[in-house]
Amino acid sequence: MYEVIYGEDTVQHPTRAEAITAAKELSAENARGMIQVQDQDRRERMTYQNGELISYDYETRRS
């Protein structure tokens, strides 16, 4: 399960591919907004702006 986060709104998507597609579309529609995608464990995080990936983080350490 992946979450697409825009401001205070959060939408869940069952697959990574669906979440990425939604984030690209949302960020392309609102050029000034940044859209975040993260997995349910919050280990993988992606940030999209203007329809493009601008940041990718994957936490390899467990706390």
UniProtKB/TrEMBL annotation:
Q: Which domain of life is it from?
A: Bacteria
**Which species?**
uncultured bacterium HF186_25m_18N5
**Lineage of origin:** Bacteria, environmental samples
Q: What is this protein called?
A: DUF2188 domain-containing protein
